[in-house]
Amino acid sequence: MAALRVGVVKEVATGERRVALTPDVVVKLKDAGLEILVQAGAGAGAWFPDERYEQAGATIVDGTKLYADADVLLAVGLPDTAQLRSGQTVVALLQPLLNAELMAQLAQQGVTAVSLDGLPRTLTRAQGMDALSSQANVAGYKAVLVAADSFHRFFPLLITAAGTSRPAEVLVLGAGVAGLQAIGTAKRLGAIVRGYDVRPASREEVKSLGGQFVELTSVESGAGEGGYARALSPEEQAAQQAELTDHIVKHDIVITTAQVPGRRPPLMVTKDAVARMKAGSVILDMAASDLGGNVEISRPGETFVTDNGVTVIGAGTLPSLMATSASNAYSRNISALLLHLVSDGALAIDQLITDSDEIAAGVVVTHGGSVVQPATAALLEKESAP
Ligand code: NAD
C-alpha cells in the first residue's frame, strides 16, 4: 500500500507567519510511515527554511503539486480551498461556525474537513492536540510584551540613584488560558497584577500565579457549560461594565481576553472607561474582531492613541508574532491529532465515527459529502430555514 501523503501548505492569510508542521515533527511522522510533502517556503515565516525540512526527510514541492498530490493537507488557517479536490482531507483551525457556508461547499466538493477547534478539550487524551490552548498561551504571553512596548514606563519597582519608579499596575480581564499566561508574564516582568473572570473557578488560578483577584458584587457566577463562560444578560453586562470601570481607571495597563463560545466577545471596557484612564495608559484587546471586541473603541489589527493619551491596541494575530514557538506547539498538536486519525498507515475516519470516537466526533466537520459536525450542521439548517 502506498504511504499516506501528507502535505504542509504555505499559509495564505495575509500576515500569517506560522506553519502547521515543523521539521522536528516531520521526522516523527516519517517514523510512523507517512510521506511528507512541504510547499516551498511554507516554514520561512517561522524561521524553518526548506533545507531543514529536506534534512528531516520531507520533499519540497510547489503549490500546484502539493494540492494535487497530497492525501491530507495540514494548515494553520484555511488553505486555498479552490485547489482542494474530492477525496482529500484538510486539517486546520477552520472555525466552522464562522465559515459554515464554506464548510457546506467543501462537503459538496467531497473534501473531508477536520478542524482542531472542535476538539473536546477537557478529554485528558486530547490535551496534546489542543491547539486553541497552545495558541492562546502564546498569545497571552505576547500580549504583555506588545502592551509593554507601548508603555513608556518600567514594569517593576526600581530604586536607583536617579529616584524610585513605582511598579506598573496591570489588570487582566478574562482569566482563561490566554489571560492566565498574561497574568504570569506581567508578574514575571515585575508588575502588580490583578485579574478578573466571571467564572468563580478562576479566582484560585489567578492567585496561584501571584495575581490579586478582583471581586465584583454586581454579577453572579457566569460559569456556563464545559468550563466556558455563559453570555451575560444585557442588565448583568451593564452592571459589570459599571463596576469594572472603577477598577480599569486605576490601572496603567489593561489586557482583555474574554470570549463566550459562539457569541460576539462581551463588551467590558466602555468608551467612557477609556476616556477616564490616565494619559500614558495602554489597553490591549485580545478579543478585538470585526464583530466587536471587549473594548468598545478597539479595532482589530489597529493601534491608536485617544485624545486623553490612552494607547488602544486591537490585537491582530498575536501567535503569528511568535511564529516559531506558536508553530512548534501547533505542530505537536496537529501531528497528535493526525496520528489519532490514522490506523495502519491510512486514515481511519469512517471507523472512528462508527466507534463513536469522541475526538473524531468533535473535529470532523465534513465527511462523505455531508456536514457531519452537529453544531455546524444545525447552523446551516437554521440559516436555510425560511
Ligand atoms: P475563552 O477563550 O472562551 O474565554 C476566555 C475567558 O474569558 C474565560 O476564562 C471566560 O470565563 C472569560 N469570560 C467570558 N465572558 C466574560 C465576562 N463577561 N467577564 C469576565 N470574563 C469573561 O476561554 P479559554 O481560555 O478557551 O478557556 C475556557 C475554559 O476552558 C477555562 O475554564 C479553561 O480552564 C478550560 N480549559 C480546560 C482545558 C482542559 O481541561 N484541558 C483546556 C483548555 C481550557
Report on the structure:
The chain has 386 residues and is α/β, with parallel strands linked by helices. The protein folds into two domains: 5-129 and 324-384, NAD(P)-binding Rossmann-like Domain (Rossmann fold, 3-Layer(aba) Sandwich); 133-316, NAD(P)-binding Rossmann-like Domain (Rossmann fold), CATH 3.40.50.720. Helix content is 34%, strand content 17%. It is built from 13 helices and 19 strands. It has helices spanning 23-31, 50-55, 63-69, 100-109, 131-150, 177-188, 202-208, 234-248, 271-275, 323-341, 349-354, 358-363, 374-384; strands at residues 5-8, 35-39, 59-61, 72-74, 89-92, 112-115, 158-160, 163-165, 169-173, 192-196, 212-213, 253-256, 282-285, 303-305, 311-314, 342-343, 346-347, 364-367, 370-371. The strands form four sheets. It has an eight-stranded mixed β-sheet, with helices on both faces. Helix 5 (131-150) crosses helix 6 and helix 5 runs antiparallel to helix 10 (323-341). The chain starts with a strand and ends with a helix. It binds nicotinamide-adenine-dinucleotide. Residues 121-122, 127, 130, 132-133, 136, 173-179, 197-199, 202, 222, 227-229, 232, 257-261, 266 line the site of nicotinamide-adenine-dinucleotide.
